[in-house]
Design a protein that fits this description.
Helix content: 40-55%
Shape: elongated
CATH superfamily: Aldolase class I
Number of strands: 4
CATH architecture: Alpha-Beta Barrel
Strand content: 5-15%
Distance between the termini: 36 Å
Largest sheet: 4 strands, parallel
Radius of gyration: 17 Å
Number of domains: 1
CATH class: Alpha Beta
Length: 163
């Protein structure tokens, strides 16, 4: 008898590796430079070399590509207006840690219908992050799974480990 049984598995689907997804949806050299500058700004604030306050603000999690871009437009205008006093980082959370029995986030259920198309969710999440980075938006992300960071960390200014 096998140690683990797959009797309850109805289907299998491969997801892309982090290297495959990063190659498919890459950061440009200018985007990489922007992320590095943004990280240095955060570091300077946390080290006390920059008097601005760091603010990580935004939606609980991203559930819609169009909503993310619409929010980012307004966010960018506000970030510019307050840039002398605050360094704003947009929350771009793709997972939902404290949801019990509900929606687990864009990575796991991009269609919001319980289909759990993780391959699509990873690709869509990365696409959104890359587009937001192209718009010069510093991004913050909570990583719940160690592997998730491998797909996105190159586009993230500030990250945290989730509960």
């Amino acid at each position: 008898m096998a140690f683990a049984s797959l009797c309850n598995v109805s289907a299998e689907e491969s997801i892309p590796s982090p290297d495959e997804l990063l190659a498919e949806i890459p950061l440009s050299s200018s985007q990489k430079a922007f992320v590095q500058r943004s990280r240095k700004s955060v570091e300077a604030i946390l080290d006390g070399r920059d008097d601005r306050l760091l603010m990580i603000v935004g939606p609980c999690s991203i559930h819609s590509e169009q909503s993310a871009y619409a929010y980012a437009e307004r966010f960018a205008r506000l970030a510019e207006e307050v840039s002398d006093r605050f360094f704003l980082v947009m929350r771009a959370y793709m997972e939902k840690p404290r949801t019990c029995g509900g929606w687990k986030g864009l990575i796991f259920d991009p269609d919001l219908n319980g289909s759990n198309n993780m391959s699509k969710g990873l690709s869509l999440s990365r696409k959104i992050l890359i587009e937001l980075t192209e718009s010069q938006i510093p991004l913050g992300c909570e990583f719940l799974e160690i592997n998730t960071s491998l797909f996105f960390s190159d586009a993230i200014t500030w990250g945290c480990v989730g509960a």
